Structures are given as structure tokens and as C-alpha cells.
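This section describes the prediction task in plain terms. A model, or a person checking by hand, is given the sequence of a single protein chain and must write out its three-dimensional structure as a string of C-alpha cells. No templates, partner chains or ligands are provided. The sample shown here is typical of the held-out split.
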Amino acid sequence: MSSSTGGPATAAAGTDPFGAGAGGILRQPRAVWATAGASVVAFMGIGLVDPILPSIAKGLRATPSQVSLLFTSYFLITAVAMLVTGFVSSRIGGRATLLLGLALVVVFAGLAGTSDSVAQLVGFRAGWGLGNALFVSTALAVIVGAAAGGSAAAILLYESALGLGMACGPLLGALLGDASWRYPFFGTAFLMAVGFLCITAFLKEQPKPARKTSLLDPIRALGHGGLASAAVSAFFYNYTFFTVLAFTPFVLNMTPYKSGAVFFAWGVLLAVFSVVVAPRMQERFGSLKVLGGSLVLLAADVLVLGYGDHTTAVVCTILSGAFIGVNNTVYTELALGVSDAPRPVASAGYNFVRWFAAAAAPYLAPKIEEWSDIRMPFVVGAATAVVGAVVVAVRRKALTLPQALDSARAGGTPTAGELQPRHATEDGVTISAN
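The expected answer:
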């Protein structure tokens, strides 16, 4: 597909990425499965608290806006940490960075379960966010470096871990949180400790990059018009995304089991549309058309969610997972390929911008409700998704993926100096755009 369409699918046309052959996603070394398994648990931590937000508010006698700070502190630290992770990993190596991140999650997730106040819980979630940033930002590079079947299979495996984690997080939160809101935090600490042991046993040290990353490199990378446009568009999209994720549980006002079931279905759609549907849509229509259309549909869905009855709100919450899955996949490609900066540097700058919206939305949504009514947070969320789509439309030329990257994603062989220099083993740690 030509670059004028904005880029084709990630997977090669006519291949079976889930096959068990030499290039299939399922035929991987133990180190890859250990890292992917820990990644699932890491992504579970994002939606883990969704079903138990009302229970936490009740148990700690807190307001929705206070409890929503669990997301705000988590993602605020994650945003800032994007400037640090490449700096750290390019000096101590990928394996050590993974283990450091896992250790921090184990400690702070366990401490979160012992909290006696919202302030303590918010503080421990901030430490958890730092650990998760170090781990998640490094995991993709490690998987790409160790996976069989090339980078396409590795990225597909990573996106599968993302979707599975986002789907299972609310389910685990509901199952454990039905007994006590503290148990999901202890459960996460235990699972991440298992991941720590698996990576210690199965993952060898990855080659260190030839050049060390500085703290200012990600900021300099944002000087590229395409990367800056992708980051700004993703900023507005992320506000919508986390309005749904963090504020909807209070609107649905369901038991942990029912809320967990809703967000499990939401996560399943996210996973399926991210890994299976989005690449096919990109191949047919082009990445930018798919992204713009998906953002507009997400805006419409969120608006109906806010104005519909309870059943409609449940359906729209689940349906939003489909649009979010598509958006995540396309934004990942844009962040990793639209500029000529090394992948770790470009993605760090991109994530630094967009995660601030993930920190703002959970806090502002309940505040907007207090200032107006329960519908207005969704009106604002719909508006930000539309703004994201407008940025894509206005900056279409700047956001067009380079032809070399388009060819590689469509199954072609990249030429020397086009795609290969972006591999983790040469440029360091790739920071996930998901």
C-alpha cells in the first residue's frame, strides 16, 4: 500500500502470524514467553482497580474524585518516567531494567494493599507506576530482540499481551475484590513476583545499545512535525480513553463481579480489534483513515454512553473497547515509524506527552460532574476524541508513514539503513506506544 494512505497492516499479508511454524507467533523461546507473561500481568495492573473503585471509596470513606487519583498518580509518574527509562536501560541493560521495574511493582503493589487512607494508596500507586513504566517500556525491546519470526511477530505478541492484560485485569480485580478491595493488590504483587523469578531464570542479558540515551533526547525528538502531531492527537484520545476507564465504574455503580464482567468484555474487544481487526482495516483503508474514523466513532459511542440509560451505558462501555483497540494499534505504528528518530527516543517523547492526559482525565471527570452533571464528563470526552481526529485530518501529510516502513509492515523486506537501524539491539530500548 502506498504511503499516501497512511500505512498498511502490521502483519504481512498472506501470512499466519499465529501459526506454529518458524515465523509464527506461537513458536518462541522461553525468554520471550516469560517476558510476555509478565507483560500480561503488568497491563492487568492498569484496569485492575476498575471494578473495585466504588469498594475502595466505601472502604476508605473517600469521594470518587479522591479515589480517581489512583489513576492520576499512576500515570503522572509514568509520563515523567518516560524520560528516564531510556536513560536507565541504555546504561544498565534491558534485563536489569525489567527486573528493577518488576521489583518496584511487587513492593508498591503489596504496600498498596496495606493502605489505611486514600493518600497512602495514591502514593503507593505512584511508586507502582514508576515500576510499571520501567518494565513495560523495556518489554517490547526485549521481546523484539529475543523473538523468533522477526519484529512483526514480536510486536503482535506484545500487543496480544496488552489486550489479554487489559481484559483480565478487571476480571482479577472483581474476583479478588469481591472479598476485599485489598486482595487485588496482593494478588498483583504475587503474580509479578512470579514474573520476576521467570525472567531471572529464562532471560539472558540483552546487548546494550551503542549509544546511551540522554534525558533530553525524547524532548528533542518532538521537534519532528509528524511525531509531535501523533503525540498531540494521542493526548486528546487518551483523555477520552481514560474517562471511560476511570469514570464509568462510578456511573455503572455495579457490584465488583458485574463491573468486572463488563470490563472483561471491554478488554476482549480491545484485544481482538487491536491484534486481528485493526491490521486488516489498515490494509484495506489506510492507517490514517482508520484512525480518524475510529476516533469519531469512539466520540459518538462515549456521547451515547453519557446520555443513555443503564443498559445503554453498559453496551457502549463494552463497545468502546473495539474503537480503543483499533486506535492503540494505529497510534503504536505512528509513534514508532513516523519520524526518523530511533524508536526508543521517539516513543519516549510520544508517551511523555500522551500519558499526561491519562493522568488528567481520571481526576477531571468526577470534578466536571461535581461542577455540572453526570453527562458532562462524557460530553468532554467525546469532544476530545473529535479533536484528536481533527489533528489527524489537518496534519495528515506530516503523519504519513515513510514508504520504507509501509513496505516493511506490508511484508516487504526493508533495505539496509531504513528499518533495521531501529531495532532494539542497536538503538536501545523501545518504549511501547500502547
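For orientation: Confidence is low (pLDDT under 50) at residues 1-17, 19-23, 403-434.
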